[in-house]
Every structure is written in C-alpha cells, then in structure tokens.
Design brief:
This protein is an alpha/beta fold and 516 residues long. It is 38% helix and 22% strand. The N and C termini lie far apart (48 Å).
Length: 516
C-alpha cells in the first residue's frame, strides 16, 4: 500500500519539549497525468477485462456489500463488486505506516453471533479467528469497574455494586431480550430506563454508554433499537477478530475470488440507470456503462436515492419519506503506535473513559472532548506482529468539523492528538516517551474515504430501514444493504443484512426457482 495516498505528512511538532511524529490525514490532491518527452502516462484502467453485463452489480465493499457479493456468487450469479477506494472493507478496514505499524479503523467489537454468521456465509477459517474480549473497563466519576460484558456479570454488578434488586435487573434483561422489529416503536430508550431504573443515571450510564459508542444510539431512539443490540452483546459478551482487519478482509477477498466475484477497486459509480419501465438497467462507473439484471447498493441510503439514482425515478411520497430519514452521527479517532520494543501493561481490551458525570449525549459528541473509548492492541491481537497500538474513538458531529478553516482544522486535529495523550497518561505512564507515531481522523476524514454523507459512520436512524427495504418496490432490481436503523449497523448487523438482501436479490433474479 502506498501510504502517501492515505495521509499527507506534516512537519514534526513539539509536545511538552518532546518531538512526536504527528500526521494529519487529509484528502489526496488530484493531479493531472504527468507528461514527459511528449509521452503521456495514461491512468490505469481499473475496469480492464470487466464484462459488459453482469447478473448483479454490488456498489461498495463494506461488510454488507462484501457478504452480499459472496452470497450471490455462491448462488451462481455473475457478480461485479465496485469499490471507489483502493482497498476493501468500508469502515472495516486498516492502514499501514512506517516502521511496520498497522492500524485498524474504528472499534471492532461484536456479539458472539458473528461466529455463526461467518461460518455459514463465509468460511470456517474466518469464524475460527473470532475471539472474546474479556477485559472491558469503565472509568468515570461515578464508578470504576471491569467486566466480561455479559448478562451474568452485568447482573452481578448492577445488583451488588449498584444495589438494584435482582428481580428488577432480571425483568429488564428479559424485556430487552424479547424486543423485536414488530414491537411498538413509540417507546424510547429513555422511557425504558425510567421504567426499570428511575433516577439512576449511574445505571443508565453503564447500560447505555457502550452502545452509544458502538452505533451512535441516543436515549430518544426507539427502545427496540437499544434492546435488540444490547441483548445480542449480553448473550455471551464482546468479540473481535484476532489477526487484524487486514487478515479478515484479505480472507474475505480470497473467498469471493474463489466463488467468482469480479472485484474492482478505484471504481467509482457515477450513476445507476433506470429504464422507462422503472427497472435498473446499468451503472456508469469510471465513465463506462455496464448493464446488469440487478443493483445492490452498499452506499449510504440517501446517497443511493438522491445521488446515484435520482429522485425523479421514485414516487413523490417515497422521496418525501427518504428526505426525512435522519443521518446518524460520526466519529473522531486518534491512532497511536508505540516505538518498536516499547510496550504497556495490560489495560484491558476496551476502556470507556469519561470525566463527565452521568450519561450526556451532548457531552459525548462535543468537540470539547470529555469521553473517549480506548481500544488496546497487544501483540496477541495480531499474532506475529510485536507492536503495541492504541486507538482512541469519540463520537462526533459532522457540523462541528465541516466548516473549519484549514488552519483551524489542522490545529484542532493536533489538539485532538495532544489531549488524547494527556488522557492516556493515567493508563499508560510516560506515553509520550513511548510514542512512535500518532495521527487523527475526523468526520471529514470518514466522509472523504467512505463517501458517506456528512461522514455518517453510524448510518441512519431507525426510519432508514424502511427506505432501504422499500427500494425494490419503487424500482425493480434495485436493492440496498448498509448501515440503517442502528440494528443493521456494526459488523454483525452489516453481515446479516447483506445476507437478507442478497436472498431477496436471488429471488428477484430467479423467480421460477423462488416459486417452487
């Protein structure tokens, strides 16, 4: 990988008398093809050898897109997977830096159900690399605890440490576990907590904060979105992929190629064509038209409707509903690598740190950061790789970063790095002396590399699911699988939604077989 395509190096900057290699991630600057001795170096044709027609074209290679492409290829369909970036994965991706450092993008924690889904829809080899994270910590003004993050341990904590009657805790977990898509959507998560834990902002914080960090949930979202996601985690705890995201995505790529998926990177779709009969007919990608029987978009649902297809192709009522879909929030991250040979004591796997009292969504997303989630990567996280890495994640609003002048934007990213090290010092003493590389990402970064509107790393609010599922009713052969409605967010939600939608695509392409 050419790291210069992912970040632009800035001059070293001094921090408390010590030099830290700070990199500011920025959008690469487009340049004209070079010309030398009257010879023009032509850009590479990333669609060279691609066919003129496919059964299915999948747009985007997030986990939902990858899983859809693989599932449809297994079913015998010809599949073209188009990704605008130079590597696959969407938010499930990674990048490399000098001195052998590898960073995973975003928090990678998911429920145990990921093992079954990967075994069934990917490979046993991928499923075998999923391991439990047993050290989940909370450090804030109200409590300091470490947990295995499952129902048994949470029940113990809430009853013994927080003094809530066991009957109340058990009823809460049972209620959350029974929630499903068909339940009343009018009850909010706030009302759910008020029913079981009135005036207990400490209990609410313990139960709510990790889910907010994971998918941007708020207390005003439908309770079912919280209950379903939380119960999935409470089943057996939090899991991750041992070996790093690079290993996972490369294994997925190999499996797709083995099943015949035609994978194309640096291939940005400009338009999804719809015929007079309101059926998809083709996509235009890198200026080339390729016809197809169906399109499955893994792009943001609003981007799919308004940018790739065009609202003129939909019913006015559907357009109005789609316009009302609210985008979820975004993220900031700080990536920190220690010098070769340096290490830190075990700090847990995930650490939810806050200086703020109580669960406060505005404080969590504020640019004046008081809450961070640290992911600690040890050598055993990526076997064969002896480096220690820390990734700090914070929820963020796109509007807080979008319009900053360039000098203020760069200064804010430097400050983000600096304050993160300040916070980290209490968990990793002398962190500045150990740091070899540090850089920051903001909602602007995620918008550039994922093409998601407003850098919405958590997709849409719950109403986005109806828009996503309603596409085939508006335009025949048009499908969507992506981060919508919180429930379909995260690694497990994305994989499972990819499977659900790819089955719908298969039925559409083979109606005779579907009716048997």
């Amino acid at each position: 990988m050419n790291a210069s395509n992912f970040a632009s190096k800035r001059p070293d900057w001094n921090s408390r008398g010590r030099t830290i290699n700070c990199v500011i991630r920025r959008s690469p600057v487009a340049t004209e093809p070079s010309e030398s001795l009257h010879e023009v170096v032509m850009p590479k044709d990333f669609l060279k050898g691609a066919k003129d027609h496919y059964d299915v074209i999948v747009i985007g290679s997030g986990l939902a897109g990858l899983t859809s492409a693989n599932t449809l290829a297994r079913a015998g369909h010809s599949v073209l997977l188009l990704e605008h970036h130079y590597q696959l994965g969407g938010m499930a991706t990674w990048f490399k830096r000098q001195n052998g450092h590898i960073f995973d993008i975003s928090l990678h924690g998911f429920p145990i159900g990921m093992i079954k889904s990967c075994r069934k829809y990917w490979t046993q080899e991928i499923a075998d690399s999923i391991v439990q994270l047993k050290g989940v910590r909370f450090e804030n003004p109200q409590f300091s605890i470490e947990t295995t993050f499952d129902r048994k341990d949470f029940t113990r904590l809430i009853t013994e440490d927080f003094g809530v009657p066991h009957e109340t805790v058990d009823e809460f977990f049972t209620t959350a576990r029974k929630m499903n898509f068909f339940d009343d959507q009018g009850t909010t998560t706030r009302e759910l907590f008020e029913r079981f834990f009135p005036d207990r902002d400490d209990v609410v914080r313990l139960l709510m904060e990790p889910i907010t960090y994971a998918n941007g949930s708020t207390l005003e979202d439908p309770a079912i979105t919280y209950g379903i996601v939380f119960s999935n985690f409470m089943s057996k705890g939090v899991y991750t992929f041992q070996g790093g995201t690079d290993k996972l995505i490369n294994q997925m790529k190999a499996e797709m190629e083995n099943n015949g998926v035609d994978i194309r990177i640096r291939s940005e779709v400009e338009k999804i064509e719809v015929g007079p009969d309101r059926r998809v007919s083709a996509v235009v990608v890198n200026g080339r038209r390729i016809t197809c029987g169906a399109v499955l978009s893994n792009a943001n649902i609003k981007q799919t409707i308004f940018n790739l297809v065009g609202e003129e192709n939909f019913d006015p009522a559907f357009v109005e509903e789609a316009q009302a879909v609210r985008l979820n929030t975004s993220s900031c991250q700080v990536y920190i690598a220690l010098k070769p040979g340096e290490s830190f004591d075990h700090c847990g796997d995930l650490l939810f740190h806050s200086e703020h009292r109580g669960f406060d969504i505005d404080a969590i997303m504020s640019r004046d950061i008081s809450s961070r989630t640290f992911s600690f990567y040890y050598p055993e996280t990526r076997p064969g790789h002896d480096r220690y890495v820390i990734v700090s994640s914070t929820n963020a609003r796109f509007e807080d970063w979008a319009q900053l002048p360039e000098d203020e934007y760069e200064a804010s990213k430097k400050d983000l790095c600096e304050t993160t090290l300040d916070c980290l010092e209490q968990y990793v003493p002398n962190i500045r002396e150990k740091v070899d590389h540090i850089e920051a990402a903001t909602p602007r970064t995620f918008k550039y590399y994922t093409r998601h509107i407003r850098g919405a790393s958590f997709g849409t609010k719950f109403e986005g699911l109806a828009a996503s599922k309603g596409l085939p009713e508006q335009i025949s052969g048009l499908f969507h699988a992506g981060s919508v409605g919180i429930i379909m967010s995260g690694w497990l939600g994305a994989v499972n939604y990819g499977v659900i939608v790819s089955n719908d695509v298969d039925k559409y392409l083979t109606p005779a077989a579907a009716s048997v």
